[in-house]
Amino acid sequence: MGQVDFFYFFGSGYAYLSVLRIADLAAQEGATVNWRPFNVRPLMKENNVMLRDEAQKVRYLWRDIERRAAQHRLPFVKPPLWPTEPDLLASRVAMVAAEEGWVEPYTVESFRVWYLEGLPLGTEESLGTILPRVGQEVGRVLAKAAEPAASARLEAETEAARKLGAFGSPTFAVGEELFWGDDRLEEAVAWAAGRHPAQA
Asked: How far apart are CA 73 and CA 93, in angstroms?
């Protein structure tokens, strides 16, 4: 059984599409998913990508995501609040979730709240909505997310993505084989299943 390492950033528009699709796609192919939140911002900066300064590209991005959501029959209300996740709190909470084994439901609920309920990510308000829905006590989790270990783990995951050659979110890795963008999700899963044409 192959494994897809799923690197994604809380606040990545295209990651929403992958977050809602990857589990079912992998299950259909008999592959597993390793959910790996990371901080894409330093990697984008290292590659001179300054999306916040590219208004025309950002307008295209949201329209493209809306089209892709319709194509995959995923819900889309309107472009979410963006930028979001100002202090990496959602990501640090994800490090706690990864350590404790609930990162997948936390991630799915976070992206649903962001996209479909209009809440920003990485605020105590939004986490007060998200965490109880995945069976977690808000105060306990926020306290753990404030500990140095959560930041250290996030830095380690970001460095792991960097070493693989990642430069954006979402990124999928099967071993050292890298796929970037939601439109490459099917290829990544096919590679994990050993049925990609390039593996022939």
From this structure: 29
